Amino acid sequence: MRLVASLIALALAALATTALAAEPPTRAQFIKRADALCRAYDDKEVKAAAPGFMTNATSIRKQGPKVLLLLRAKLADLRKLTPPAGDAARLSGIWKLLEQTVNAFAREIQAERAGDWDPRRREIGAIRKKLEAATDRYGFIWCP
């Protein structure tokens, strides 16, 4: 009888632990996790890019593909995070803006390779402003 009671107690404890682990994070917890992830990627992006990056065609040609890979990996990792309850749609919108920013950056790399890059014609700037406004409103510090 004691063995059965012990097994039931262990099973209930395991269920309780699983239920707690399955709860979505609070917004503060989510922001903390996402910002830590973004900060780690930002450090990698800074190391991959030279000073003056995105101000001349040579820097885009040399460092652009490395930075683009990091941006895509960051976006994929952010999308893997479990959002707080009720925030999935809002975060999906933020991640879509980040994806648009990444895609605009990819187009700038392609334009440079085609000899058509012009620093005055930067689509990425307008998208980035929308992204920064959305992330600021949500409460992020390091993201995107």
What is the helix tally? 5
Low-confidence parts, pLDDT < 50 over ≥5 residues? 2-7
The Rg value, from CA coordinates, equals 21 Å
Distance between the termini: 56 Å
β-strand amount: under 5%
Number of strands: 0
* Helix percent band: over 70%
Mean pLDDT: 84
- What is the global morphology? elongated
Question: Which sequence of SSEs, written as H and E, runs from N to C?
Answer: HHHHH
Helix-strand makeup class: mainly alpha
Q: Mind describing the biggest β-sheet? A: none
Domains, number: 1
Characterize the structure shown:
- The chain is mainly alpha-helical and 144 residues long.
- It has one domain.
- It contains five helices and no strands.
- Helix 2 packs antiparallel against helix 3 (57-80) and helix 4 (88-113) packs antiparallel against helix 5 (123-138).
- The termini are far apart.
Structure summary:
By secondary structure, the chain is mostly helical. It has five helices and no strands. It has one domain.
Question: Can you give keywords for this protein?
Answer:
144 residues; mainly alpha; 5 helices; 76% helix; elongated; disordered N terminus
How would you summarize the topology of this molecule?
Layout: H1 2-22, H2 27-48, H3 57-80, H4 88-113, H5 123-138
